[in-house]
Amino acid sequence: MGKVLLERLYGDRVLVYVQNPILLSPHSLPQPDLALLKPRPDFYRSGLPRPEDVLLVVEVSLSTRELDQKVKLPLYAGAGIPEVWLVGEETLEVYRKPKGGHYRLRLLLEAGEEVVPLGLEGPPFPFNPPRGTPPA
Fold first, then answer.
1. What are the beta bridge partners of residue 96?
2. What CATH number has the domain bearing residue 34?
3. Is residue 133 a part of any domain in this protein?
4. pTM of the full predicted structure?
5. What residues have CB less than 8 Å from 91, skipping those under 6 apart?
6. Which of 46, 69, 81, 132 could be a cystine partner for 76, CB 3.0 to 4.6 Å?
7. Structural domain of residue 109, as residue ranges?
8. pLDDT tens digits, residue range 43-55?
9. How many domains does the chain have?
10. Contact between 49 and 90 (Cβ < 8 Å)
11. Per-residue pLDDT tens over the stretch 11-43
């Protein structure tokens, strides 16, 4: 999942946050692969982002699919994160409309399809599956 592409497409409106923690609750501090955050003048130096700061979480689920689906996705939904993308070997799963510990809407994208993150006007993000072997 391209940090550079996300920055090029949306970096003028969001902060692309890479493998850093998000404070979901006093007992939950996941580190998503990527997140798009609302901009803040201090770039989150004075405190970790909270759910209300997060526009999108991206998890690259090549070797962590079960953890991402069974543990992280319910945590993000329960905290009210509006959108989560799970990147698979061939597909991009887009989860929206959190309610309780689950998402009410799931979109499945294949190579060549596009999606626009909620809360951001275009341009659309073109999904191209990751290439190569995931790290062990």
1. 83, 105
2. 3.90.1570.10
3. no
4. 0.92
5. 108, 109, 110, 129
6. 81
7. 3-126
8. 999 999 999 999 9
9. 1
10. no
11. 999 999 999 999 999 999 999 999 999 999 999
